[in-house]
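[09:14] KT: can someone run the structure on this one? pasting the chain below
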Amino acid sequence: MQLIKAEIVGFGAYRQQEFVFSPTNQLIYGENEAGKSTLYQFIQAMLFGFPKKSGKKRDYTPTDGMAFGGRLWLKTSQYQSIKIERFRQTNKGKARVWLDEMETTEEHLHQLLDGLSLAMFQDIYTFQQEQLSAIDHLEEQELHQALLSIGISGSQTIMAQIQEDKKSNQALFRPRGQRLPLNQLINQYKQLQTRIQQKEQQEAQVQAKTQRIIAINQELTQLKQQLSDLTERVKQAEQQTLHWSLYEEWQALNHTLPKNLAAPELTKRIQQFYQRYHEVTATIQKHQAEIARLEQGNTSDRYFFYLEQEALIQQISKGQVELARMEDQLTQETARLADDEHRKQALEQKWGWQANQPPEFAQREVYEQLTTVSQLQQEIQLLSEQTRWLAERQAEKSPSRTSNPHQSTWGLIALVALVVGILLAIGKLVGPSLFAFFISILSAYRLIQQPRLKKQGETADEQAKVQQKLATKQEVYEQLIQQMRPFFGNQAPVEEWPVIVRHYDEEVEMYHSLLASLPSLRQRVHDIKKRLAERAKSWAVFADWLPLANLSVMEQVAKILAFGEEMQAIKMDRLQQPSTLLARQVQQLQEEREHIIATHQSLLQQLGIEQPADIPMWMRQWEALQTQKQRQEELATMLAPIYPHPITKEALDGFVQKNRQQQKRLESQREIAVTEQQKRKLELAQLQEDGTLDELYQQRVLLEDDIRESTTAWASNQIHAAMLSDLATNRSEQQLPQLLQKATHFFQILTNHSYQKIWFQEGQLMVTNEQESFDSHQLSTGTKDQLIMAIRFAYVALQGSEPLCPVIIDDGWLHYDHQRKYNLARLFKEFGQTTQVICLSSDREMVSYYQELEQQLLSIK
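[09:31] RB: done, structure tokens below
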């Protein structure tokens, strides 16, 4: 079904409003309260009727008397135009329907909707925020029921037959029924069983013997199985004993043969190589013999040696510049290495350092202690100055050192007495007022003299305190100096300690730098020497013809090049001689032989052949090993079924003996059990001669047949219903993987591929990202919304190219950030290619995404 147009006459705030819908994906945008939800409610009312008025639901009835209702146009695969007209005040709210201009009834509309109900419309095809929080219902059983309920699995007929089978069973038997046929037979069986139990209690011996016979039968069955198994093991052990010599040969081959034997293809390649190598070598020997015959003992060995090594001499000539550069670099690096080694040894001798235990820099504590020493020196100097100043001040305020304190005291007393006497005399002459004047002068003199004496005492106290503080500081200073003395030594003055520490750290840093640079420097010198030695090794063949011993690399190169110039002159003289032509051919053949060897060097290394001359012996060894390998495979085919596990001769003999003893023991137990069984059967036959219990057993058998017949009918219906239920479930299970596959695809779009899979584990919905799997309840709120939306879209997608209804979304992304909204817009775009999508939103950000993705936009004002 696809919506074409909506014409609202009166519904909520809408009056004479018309909306035309796009057949694909579209966004209908409007601010809050613009009427988006009202449009959704109008579409729902046109399809399924006006909702009943309720205090908990919004009433969209116009308040201005406008007709309540409108028209909706849609199309299906059968009809290109279906018009639905519905007004609350007309025809009791029922719809008038036109199919391509032909009017029909609302009942026909339900058929046209193909089973689409209001519940399916709300639960499957429309999306609102509160629906996206129902994560508790996303379990496997609920999804099966949903698939059945919407008819995707095609199970309506099956469900009807299931109900018919259950109805038939209800007429035959009920758990609490009394008069139903099967219930009556069961009650009769219970009564008869009670009588049999009473009779069996009287004949307890019969039951005991019967139970014993059953136990003996079980024991005989177990003994028979054990004997059968033991017989098989005995047969296998006999087979192993019979083939023991072949088994030993097989095991010996398994231990001696190499695990990786060269393949025949490699052997064929090595044979072809050796054949060509042998042909070239034979030709070289033939030419060398011919040269020896032509020369007839002439001293031309140096010349023919030159012809063989002419290419090497040319190569040495081309590389002499590079060799000179390498020698210069070696000289420079060696001198630098010797200088760094000397500096390192000098520091080690000076400080006693070792490379395996590099020294550490002076600790921060040493610098802090030096700072403390400097501060203490300044404080001691300041206190000394203060002490000297106080002493000088005290000396200035004290009496003369030559005066006698006792004399001063007695003189003062005499002076006071004289003054008092004079005052007394004056008092008598001048009267009381003048006498009081003299007394006041004497008192003032006393007041002036007292502060002076007091200040002299305070200066002495302050001097004592400063001296005490100076002594304390000197003591701390001396202790700190003694504590630091081991680090600086007894000879270094304290004033030079800061310079010593800085110099020490500088040399520590230099030593660490040398330790870090020396290994790489040694390696470079070693590498240059190695490369020069390899070059010298390449022309070691000249040592038998030229005096190269004790010469440097460049001196050796000069000797070789001089030899080449000398021989080149001889070559020009002998260029057309037969021996020279043959020598050139020998040289070409030798180059060809070296090329053949170099081309097949990897093959020789793979097969473990050191030189071509060893190939014939290697081939003989390989053929012998190949014969043994074939024998090993033959024995493996023959003996693997007989010897499934490795075994020793001693273990096999012990196993055979143990099996024979166990076989005898089981045979003895079986004979004893058979004897007891026969005895118990005879005793039981004697106890059952009266036949009373047999009659009850016969009645029970007949009643059991009746019950079996009724229960079979009941069980058949039950099984049939269960089978049909399983069939319906299987159909839904066949659809469920498709549903999860679709949902996974949509979930990947919504999460920008952060999650790769949706699946069930023990009935619980799970999701998987790149690192791990999560229970759906562990997801964030926004991701839960995305998961439910993906599954809802998957439901719609399973209905094929023409779903029952368009998808309508009313702002279903409350918990989405901007990236999730963009991914949702991408999903709407993809889904809208096959299904009509109507998105109602007040989100301006969503509008921008629709514009970016070039999707249809419609604005509500």
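[09:33] KT: thanks! The radius of gyration is 59 Å.
[09:34] RB: yep, looked fine to me
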